[in-house]
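re: ur question from earlier - yeah i can do the single chain one, its not a big deal. heres the input i used so u can compare w yours
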Amino acid sequence: MRTVRNVHERTIEAPAETVGALLDQLSSPLDPLFPTPAWPPMRFDRPLGVGATGGHGFVRYAVAAYEPGRRVRFAFGPPMNGHHGIAVEPLGPGRCRVRHTLEAEQRPTLWVGWALAVRWMHDTVVEEIFDNVERVATGAVRRPVRWSPWVRLLNRLVWDRPAAVEIPAAARLARTAFERTDFHDAWQMDVRPGMPEEPEAWRGVLRGAPFPVVGREGGEVLLGEDAGHLDFRASILVDDGRVTLSTVVRIHNWRGRLYWAVVKRVHPCMARTMLRRTHRRLALAAPSAGERAQRAPDSPEAQVS
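and the output i got, formated as tokens:
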């Protein structure tokens, strides 16, 4: 077993009480610190408190200790043995230090993964948390973290993947597009905090295939085209914190059956790829948690001004 110890700290020119109040919002629906949507959000099965279980992305942990406004400590779940946490230390009336500490015992296979990949993402996420602390508490970030090409590649590789689902009940336009349907499928992803929730923003999923819009209703936009051999509809639904790309096809004749027999072999891969690519593009273009909190009317900066 190898023991990994990783420490980050930053001095913040703001009272410890202000920063501690931000720390208490970790994992909440309006979390101002965890760097979403560029990274998976921190989520637990209950509000932040001892015993809450969850994590972010593929990293699982539970809240082992919590002192509101001062520190929170998380214990890793198997196969890891260790902990990580954030603490706020006062340095004077208008200054404090934020420290993140990770200690874990890892088997050789996990240590290799840590050294080659996880460490680089971990360091970036922690520094982005500090950026958000500094941004919300003081109004600006002196030296924001920059992604290295390696971190950018890792982020792309670990990005969420669409899951196959039934066409949602809320996708009424897709469900009623044709009286008879010869093919249908649907792929779904979670919409991370800060990502757009208007279906029009997701029309880029079909970039390169500029189908006209044939219907709009609620959180759904329907695109499609009719041809002599088959009719095609693509539905983009943003509902209940998820985005769903649904496809329905109606075949008219033997030319349509022959055409679709070829296309349907690559269609699922293309649909997944287009949805995942658009999901990441929109997430990376969205404002960070700190930027969103900074714009909120009750943010520390807004109160000062």
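Residues 254-285 form the longest helix (32 residues). not sure if urs matches, ping me
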